[in-house]
Amino acid sequence: MSGLVIVLGAGVVGLQTAVSLLEDGHKVTIVTEHFPGDESIEYTSPWAGAIWRTHSAHDQKELCQWDIESYNHWMNTTTKGENMMTETGLERRSIRVYSAMPNIDTSSPSLWFSSHVSDFSIIPPTSLPPTCTSGYSYTSIAINPPIYLSHLLSKASTLGAQLIRASLPTSGGLPGAITAALHLARTPLSSSPILINCTGLSSSTLVPDPALYPIRGQTLLVSITPPPPPTSLHIVMHEDPAISPDVTYIIPRPLTSTFVFGGTKIPDDWSSEPDASTTKGILERCRNVWPEICDSKIEVLATQVGLRPGRKGGVRVEVEEVDVDVDGERRGKAKVKVVHQYGHAGAGYQLSLGSARKVLGIVRGIVEGRE
């Protein structure tokens, strides 16, 4: 059995959900204000650093499973040749995670993922930067967000998705937005449509959900002269809670000669403007953690700001029945099932496949009368 589904939002979570639904035979319409290629502070996914690295605690079993699912899927994708890597923007890349801790305890619950990734190992002290005292490495996946998002959109279009660019009203709350989306998609209530809310941080006003909050990230897209030797092109991260909300990471951007330097994780900060002092701090920290570039020329090509959709209580994936006006008039009410899927914080890419799979299961249950 197949359903008629409207996906609200075209970030990485919304697009992956649309693809998963289409592959299962459902009819899908995507309604969104922003599509891949757009640049807006309201459109978070293009600004991501985008690598595979778990944000999940060992006791968050479902999220851990979602992490593993994306890792296995992407690792498999990178075995399908250069054309597939070019099409998806995915690339295998060693990651080195440095720490200010005196040593790495391999039995620590925080390393729950170590048996699920390739080539996990402890970095010997002689291979650590001067500012670090311990570290570990494994094979990760780096993602070029614009390419990956365009790949998902192209896949959805090829599978038959209807695409509608529109800004949904918030003045009428979620019922008003649903009515507007149904009108845009020319979908009558009698067809029992299902809506998937993948609007991320916008759900704070659309739903509304007061548990949502922004986590501001500032990164730099840079070029390095002379180019670092290929043997040193790792993803580099330095874990140091003492500098929070600042963080330090370097990501070679797939299919380019550029790098992403980061960054920040500032909760409840809605500012969309780059901060010059933050830029200076990012450059200093990245030079310190990657000695090979300490004397190189670093040119900042772009300073980027994105707002991750944090949520108190974590990711929300659940069904809500919403009363909407029949035909937009006060002639009665009809219940529309909405599957909320938002609040992935900074883990949208690595959680997207598992999260979409859960939504697919919910949609199947609704169509079959089990939800």
Automatic annotation (TrEMBL):
Name this polypeptide is given: FAD dependent oxidoreductase
Cleaved signal peptide residues: 1-18
Molecular functions per Gene Ontology: D-amino-acid oxidase activity; FAD binding
Binding site for FAD: 44-45, 199
InterPro entries in the record: DAO (IPR023209), FAD-dep_OxRdtase (IPR006076)
Cofactor(s) demanded: FAD
Coiled coil residues, start to end: none
FAD dependent oxidoreductase domain: residues covered: 5-358
One Gene Ontology cellular component: cytoplasm
Family, similarity comment: Belongs to the DAMOX/DASOX family.
Domain of life: Eukaryota
Sequence positions that bind D-dopa: 238, 249, 308, 346
UniProt record, GO biological process: D-amino acid catabolic process
